[in-house]
């Protein structure tokens, strides 16, 4: 997906609603390359096994150039670093993609074209009722400590997500639906589900969930206590990933070494150093001075990088930015303007998304193609074309009319919260631009720039009577996901961490989607659900943004860069010397 500056996508320009807001950086997690996590459910539900040869062929084609060209040391500057925990059971999904994917493999993989491929499991079968999954493990995989991968390691790693010490909530919810996790023999694992989970294979890949596999004996050498195990993993993590641990200074740097004879390939990178450098100017200076060979860039810096003789690469549609209206279902929000869907639609209609992409993203982005933070490959986009066109429509006159119909002809005051997060460190700048647009329709914004840690208790798992942020709006940046059910589960599932307005009818429809094994029928049901979901305007998509990268083309090649991988670990193992990429 790499592209030079001549391949930038452009959007139509519109008149600017503001003049003093600086242009926005397209700083995103490189972790969110657009790989589609799709799988042919028709085959798998009938018990067909995965093709164990396909991943070996892909690995061979990926790795030959780097292996034949010798190995190199690479330094990379990241704007968003990742976790301070090196334990896959402790942390959030986005953070795992940045650091932990170097260290740990998953049962399944995702290929360049979005197809599901074997990972640590070479094949799998699913029972006709969708309740039993059987995986056959590779025989050629060793952990970084030299021990062999067995079914016991997989069972142990998955069972750890049941411990009360785990904070990887998404992975824990996947495991919670399993009645049993059993080692049938040394290389066979059986998962018995309590109810059908048609998206399970996708969740066992390295993208939306990330269930990393650890060595049972090594981790248990610290004892049975979860905290003691976590301390061991934190100080000296061991996995089967393409890179092994060297050192880690929280929020400063992580150092890894490429694993020779890794089961996918030997990375061309010998020593890899990832630096946490949140300041854009510092990252740019490090690239121009040769201190790093690759970094994330602001779109404002593209021309300077090109003038210096370095190269630009981009990853299209890496992440989404949108708005979320929180807590309208809480009693303290009763009577507030944002509890009216007409008001929320008016707020959406008043946003000139094309101008945001042109002026703040410098054209490195596009208008939404799907419901908020879903990859276009996760759904049949033609089913949603009319819906997303409506969501992206700019019509301030209609917005004003809707406000009048809702009883606010003179506008109203609105609490608007924003915070920098991993995919969008500069989300507050977008909030300022949107606030200026809303002033044009009489909505006066009390804009609060805070941090996610402060705001999170009133977003995730908030008490029903929490009045802070109830009925307020906040920015929300997220890497695209390839699993539509995971998005719905976040907001409408049982014990949803970020609940939106719900009804008994929607709860029943969601339960039906969760149980439906037939792929075509499930897509139809998803279409029905997202139609209702988007008409409520509780989540308001803004645009999809690209990751923009500057790199030293005399040292690195991006010819095989970022295709289909959604984590730094999968990216780093594909870096090759420039001469190898140009061969």
Keywords:
2 domains, Dipeptide-binding Protein, domain 3, 583 residues, four-stranded antiparallel β-sheet, 19 strands, D-Maltodextrin-Binding Protein, domain 2, eleven-stranded mixed β-sheet, 30% helix, 21 helices, alpha+beta
The radius of gyration over CA amounts to 24 Å
Unreliable segments of 5+ consecutive residues: 1-69
Q: Write out the CATH superfamily name of the largest domain.
A: Periplasmic binding protein-like II
Mean pLDDT over the residues: 81
Any idea what the shape is?
globular
Percentage of residues in helical conformation? 25-40%
Strand portion: 15-25%
Instruction: Look at the helices and sheets and give the structural class.
Output: alpha+beta
Main β-sheet description: 11 strands, mixed
Helix segment tally: 21
The CATH C-level name of the largest domain is Alpha Beta
The multimeric state of the shown protein is: single chain
In whole angstroms, the N-to-C terminal distance is: 19 Å
């Amino acid at each position: 997906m790499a592209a030079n500056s001549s391949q930038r996508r452009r959007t139509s320009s519109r008149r600017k609603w503001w003049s003093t807001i600086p242009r926005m950086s397209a700083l995103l997690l490189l972790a969110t390359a657009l790989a589609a996590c799709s799988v042919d459910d028709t085959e798998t539900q009938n018990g067909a096994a995965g093709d164990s040869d396909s991943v070996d062929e892909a690995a061979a084609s990926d790795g030959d150039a780097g292996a034949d060209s010798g190995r190199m040391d690479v330094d990379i500057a990241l704007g968003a670093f990742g976790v301070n925990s090196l334990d896959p059971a402790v942390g959030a999904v986005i953070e795992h993609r940045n650091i932990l994917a170097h260290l740990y493999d998953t049962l399944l993989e995702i290929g360049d074209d979005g197809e599901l491929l074997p990972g640590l499991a070479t094949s799998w079968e699913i029972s006709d009722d969708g309740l039993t999954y059987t995986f056959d493990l590779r025989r050629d995989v060793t952990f970084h400590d030299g021990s062999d991968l067995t079914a016991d390691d997989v069972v142990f790693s998955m069972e750890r997500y049941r411990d009360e010490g785990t904070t990887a909530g998404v992975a824990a919810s996947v495991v919670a639906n399993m009645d049993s996790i059993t080692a049938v023999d040394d290389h066979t694992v059986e998962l018995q589900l309590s109810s059908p989970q048609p998206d399970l294979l996708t969740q066992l890949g390295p993208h939306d969930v990330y269930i990393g596999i650890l060595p049972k004996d090594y981790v248990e050498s610290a004892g049975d206590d979860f905290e003691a195990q976590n301390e061991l993993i934190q100080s000296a993590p061991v996995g089967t990933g393409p890179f092994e641990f060297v050192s880690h200074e929280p929020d400063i740097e992580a150092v890894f070494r490429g694993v020779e004879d890794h089961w996918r390939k030997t990375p061309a990178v010998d020593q890899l150093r990832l630096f946490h450098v949140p300041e854009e100017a510092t990252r740019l200076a490090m690239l121009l001075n040769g201190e790093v060979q690759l970094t994330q860039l602001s779109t404002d810096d593209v021309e300077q990088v090109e003038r210096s003789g370095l190269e630009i690469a981009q990853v299209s549609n890496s992440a989404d930015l949108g708005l979320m209206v929180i807590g309208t279902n809480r009693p303290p929000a009763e009577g507030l303007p944002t509890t009216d869907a007409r008001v929320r639609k008016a707020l959406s209609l008043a946003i000139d998304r094309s101008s945001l992409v042109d002026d703040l993203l410098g054209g490195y982005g596009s208008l939404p193609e799907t419901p908020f933070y879903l990859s276009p490959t996760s759904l049949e986009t033609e089913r949603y074309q009319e819906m997303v066109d409506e969501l992206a429509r700019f019509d301030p006159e209609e917005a004003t009319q809707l406000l009048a119909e809702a009883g606010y002809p003179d506008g109203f005051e609105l609490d608007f919260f924003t915070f920098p997060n991993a995919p969008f460190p500069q989300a507050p700048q977008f909030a300022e631009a949107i606030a200026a647009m809303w002033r044009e329709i009489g909505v006066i914004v009390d804009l609060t720039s805070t941090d996610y840690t402060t705001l999170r208790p009133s977003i995730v798992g908030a008490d029903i009577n929490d009045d802070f942020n109830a009925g307020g709006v906040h920015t929300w940046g997220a890497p695209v996901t390839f699993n539509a059910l995971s998005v719905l589960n976040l907001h409408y599932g049982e014990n949803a961490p970020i609940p939106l307005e719900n009804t008994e009818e929607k709860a029943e429809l969601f339960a039906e989607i969760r149980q439906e094994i037939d792929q075509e029928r499930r897509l139809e049901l998803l279409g029905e659900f997202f139609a209702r979901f988007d008409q409520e305007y509780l989540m308001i998509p803004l645009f999809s943004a690209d990751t923009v990268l500057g790199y030293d083309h005399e040292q690195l090649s991006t010819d095989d860069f970022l295709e289909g991988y959604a984590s730094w670990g999968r990216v780093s193992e594909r870096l090759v010397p420039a001469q190898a990429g140009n061969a």
